[in-house]
Amino acid sequence: MLPVHTHYDHAMDSAVVADRTGADLVGGESTAYVGRGHGLPDHRIRVVTPGEPVSYGGFTLTLVESHHCPPDRFPGEITAPVVPPVKAGAYKCGEAWSILVEHVSGATALLQGSAGFVEGSLAGRRADVAYLGVGQLGVQSEDYLRTYWAETVEAVGARRVVLTHWDDFFRPLDRELRALPYAGDDLDVTMRVLDELAAGSGVSMHFPTVWRREDPWR
Ligand SMILES: [Zn+2]
How many angstroms is it from 7 CA to the middle of ligand 1? Predict the structure, then answer.
């Protein structure tokens, strides 16, 4: 279980899911404090060194330090156990990761949870598929969108992009996904720029379908 950062919409249930599935909770110190506050035992919490690979079964995971997309509504690190019930703001951002995944089959992926970047941080890394978080991208400048694409999709040489974090996560998952209807984003703007970037570089791009298994490496 690897929250891409520790805002409530990514990390609030991470320890519960880890507990129910027998998984480890993996991340930085902020993630560890979420786990401890939710009663997950220490041996099930793994704090990584940024850039150093960790292995689980057939998967090798490398967490590279990234940035959250501005505006970060709850910035900073978590420095004490988060014991629920707490307000959403208790789940501060913590470390924002670009996660590189390699499977023994040779398949590789970049999981970019938040639409932020650290210039040059993914240089020299490779991933066939990019799961690209696009939340809040629609309110950034066009220049920001282009730089984000260059620092993520282009940097790792991905040939396929799956767009994530664009949907309204306050909606139950037994209903179809739809874009965030709030003023905090504009998916039409995001798609206009990303469609052009993808077409110009021969990258295929799609939205995932909820509950449907997919294989973007085929
Ligand atoms: Zn966030």
Answer: 5
Domain range enclosing 113: 107-218
Say if CB 186 and CB 138 are below 8 A apart.
yes
- Ligand 1 centroid to Cα of residue 135, in Å, is 9
Residues 22-78 have pLDDT tens digits of 999 999 999 999 999 999 999 999 999 999 999 999 999 999 999 999 999 999 999
* Domains held by the chain: number: 1
Distance CA 161, CA 159 (A): 7
Spacing, Cα 218 to ligand 1 middle (Å): 30
Task: Say if 62 falls within a structural domain.
Answer: no
- How much distance in Å is there from the Cα of 72 to the middle of ligand 1? 7
Q: Choose among 160, 158, 173: nearest CA to 211.
A: 173
Per-residue pLDDT tens for 160-173? 999 999 888 888 88
Taking the model in full, what pTM does it have? 0.95
Expressed in angstroms and rounded, the spacing between residue 118 Cα and the centre of ligand 1 is 16
